[in-house]
Write a structure and sequence with these properties.
There is one protein chain. With 247 residues, the chain is α+β, with helices and mostly antiparallel strands. Helices cover 32% and strands 22% of the residues. The chain has helices at residues 38-41, 54-69, 92-102, 112-115, 122-131, 148-159, 226-246, and strands at 2-13, 16-19, 81-87, 137-141, 165-172, 188-195, 206-210, 216-218, 221-222. Helix 2 runs parallel beside helix 5. The longest helix is centred in the C-terminal third of the chain and has 21 residues, at 226-246. It is globular, with a radius of gyration of 18 Å.
């Protein structure tokens, strides 16, 4: 049975933002996302943070919170940590804004600042540079944002020895204005840090496993989607703290 340890959780949604060991997770609705500054996200200088589009800033911030929760946000030497993210709409809204600058004047006014973020995986590179991550990084496009496919791929990479640690999650800023009324999905980002059972990175929320039927389980209970998994992590942390008090 495929098994990894879940050691970090970080998120941003309409209900708030934070790290799993500091703030209980609440699923967000369709409301506005909290506004975060660079200092909210990282204690280290991050010159490009203010220039990122909303989608990239959202993803990098949630990855930062997850790494902080796992005790992996500070570094001196690059680490072989993978990042795998799922999205429905990606940077499509920013792509539309960019092409609005391309159409006039035959492209002579095309914005280089917008162009830099017209790929759904650009923010993974930003996160890799800022946090010293040298493992593989890619984005999956899913028809609905469960995030389970990306999580399973991250688990498989650990099981196959490609890397010992991975960050996996979801990121979406919501439905682009050009597609209003054609879909659904609350904006937000939610990432988890997982590792093999050998590395010593500190306390674990619990074990993620995959059974023979392909279902993903957390501490033996089937995971429906990543929001469900984050809620289970909050419950696990509450139980662990209660157990410590009992002792």
């Amino acid at each position: 049975m495929l098994r990894v340890e879940l050691i970090g959780v970080g998120w941003i949604n309409a209900a708030g933002a934070g790290c799993g060991r500091q703030v209980p997770f609440l699923a967000g609705g369709d409301g506005p996302l909290p506004k975060l500054s660079r200092k909210d996200v990282s204690s280290r200088p991050f010159p490009r943070f203010g220039r990122m589009d909303a989608y990239s800033r959202l993803g990098v911030s949630a990855i930062s919170f997850a790494l902080k929760d796992a005790g992996l946000d500070e570094w001196s030497n690059p680490r072989d940590i993978a990042v795998i993210a799922s999205t429905v709409y990606g940077c499509l809204s920013l792509d539309n804004d960019y092409y609005d600058t391309v159409i006039p004047e035959g492209g002579r006014l095309a914005s280089p600042n917008l162009f830099a973020y017209t790929l759904a995986n650009t923010y993974l590179g930003e996160a890799a540079v800022h946090f010293g991550l040298t493992g593989p990084g890619f984005v999956l496009c899913e028809p609905t944002l469960s995030g389970l496919q990306g999580l399973r791929m991250a688990m498989s990479g650990i099981a196959g020895g490609e890397y010992a640690t991975a960050v996996a999650g979801v990121c979406d800023v919501g439905i682009p204005p050009s597609l209003a009324g054609t879909g659904s999905g609350a904006p937000g980002a939610l990432f988890f840090v997982i590792q093999d059972g050998i590395s010593d990175r500190g306390p674990s929320y619990g074990a993620l496993t995959q059974n023979g039927e392909g279902a993903t389980l957390f501490n033996g209970v089937q995971v429906e989607d990543l929001n469900n998994l984050a809620s289970m992590c909050t419950a696990s942390m509450r139980d662990q703290k209660g157990g410590n008090r009992d002792k």
